[in-house]
Amino acid sequence: MKIIDARVVISSPGRNYVTLVIETESGVIGVGDATLNGRELSVASYLRDHVVPLLIGREANRIEDTWHYLYKGSYWRRGPVQMTAIAAVDIALWDIKGKVAGLPVYELLGGAAREGVMVYGHATGADLDELKDDFRKHLDAGYKAVRAQCSVPGLSKTYGVPPADGRMYEPASGSLPQQDVWETTAYLDFAPRMMEAIREEFGFGVHLLHDVHHRLTPIEAARLGAALEPYRPFWMEDPTPAEDQSAFRLIREHTTTPIAVGEVFNSIWDCQQLITERLIDYIRTSVSHAGGITHLRRIFSLAELYGVKSGSHGAGDLSPVSFAAALHVDLSIPNFGVQEYMGHREPANEVFHTSYSFENGYMHPGNLPGLGVEFDEKAAAAFPYDPKYLPVNRKLDGTVHDW
Ligand code: KDG
Ligand code: MG
Question: In a 10 Å sphere around its CB, with 0-12 CB exposed, 13-18 middle and 19+ buried, how is residue 349 labelled?
């Protein structure tokens, strides 16, 4: 069954998404997510200019061969652009394989290893009262795991706390990057108080998560991890910039707070040391930025050997296509930990029709053949691309800092 067409659709239903549509000679169509927040056009070009010509005429069922053809065949390999592009092809080919077999993708991956996928939602607030209100809403909705982020007193902006228009991880349209501010001391003083406030209000019967977003040095992260121990967090996410893998040894030596890392990783090589030296507890690579279902499964298999669990990234800047793909992987692997679920802002649902469901804190990808996501290209055309940047972070003295 040959591929006869592949096209890249860039649309902005609520936020920017890049979607790859692969069409086969038998009429079966597969979809993949190629969204790289703030750098969308680079992946679109990689696909349109360099990958689509290689796909036309290829056998759609040869997923593993196509993966290596695109990875090794480019010579210049890894990095977010290439690995997101390969992921989009890979996800679309798994979608096609499922549709041809008449089975949901998780059945092709070995079948369900659990009844549902525990997801965590995002509770946020401009102050502790607002955060507690939002946290309560998540518990009322059935969440068993919730991430807490709150404005740091004294700082005008804080990561993870959306502005009034609800737009997360992007500035207003048409502008240059929004500038955020950072002050480590204020954050380190406040974060334990925030976690204490949540535990005092809601007890220990819910999994409590927190994202540090790469902003600390190893010794600062070690101090934070130790300070959070009484509140027994499910994890402390991205405590330090993740490319420095050996830094995690120092954090590990000082705290039993579990560590989660990986949303910016693109390949198994980025997390090899972290996993094999048991420096982390959860690996957070995403299906759309780390080479698709084929490569993500390889990362999770390596992690399984070393007792590391999955905790896939699932921010709203990953489209419903990759969210569905993540759920299929989550349902089928033995070492599943938790899945991030931020949801998608309207009108994404007019463009992506999904079969996944949420019940009582758990999600299921549904049982439609393939991924269970139908992409409405006509509807997408009504939402043209809207160029945006992720924010840039500076310390109070103006020094550029990790965002
Ligand atoms: O595009 C960047 C976002 O996906 C990221 O900042 C969100 O850290 C994030 C998370 O854990 O959801
Ligand atoms: Mg994160």
Answer: middle
